[in-house]
Amino acid sequence: MQESEFAETKSKDVTVPEINSQAGTITKLQPPVQSQEQWLKYGEQVSSFLGTLPEYLGSFFNQYKQPLVTLGLVLTAIVSVKVLLAILDALNDIPLVAPTFELIGIGYSAWFVYRYLLKASTREELTSEITTLKSQVVGEQTPEA
Length: 145
Prior knowledge:
Order of helices and strands: HHHH
Structural class: mainly alpha
Strand content: under 5%
Number of strands: 0
Mean pLDDT: 83
């Protein structure tokens, strides 16, 4: 192998100054190339957008109030059903809770039949209570039989 083939060559015309010639010195960074005017321009654009945002959102909500409320109610109902099903599933996994709820349901059903369905007078009382509740919910008076 020839040594001249891989010999190091140095250009005597160009010299590169050492950045840190002294030990422990910190190199200073050059200031950014972007000017302050560009940053001010961006700041003004963001500020104007944020200034008009409440007005824009208010007009959007006023224009689409009914569909937004309907969508919110539908999403709330879906989330509520999911949470209720998760709670019931968690309660069903606890030992003795499911049979206890079944006994409570059977007991309440037996009490309801005894209280309202055995006698004709109590059935009339139940009918009048249902009619009163229906008129309160619907808001109109139903003719009584």
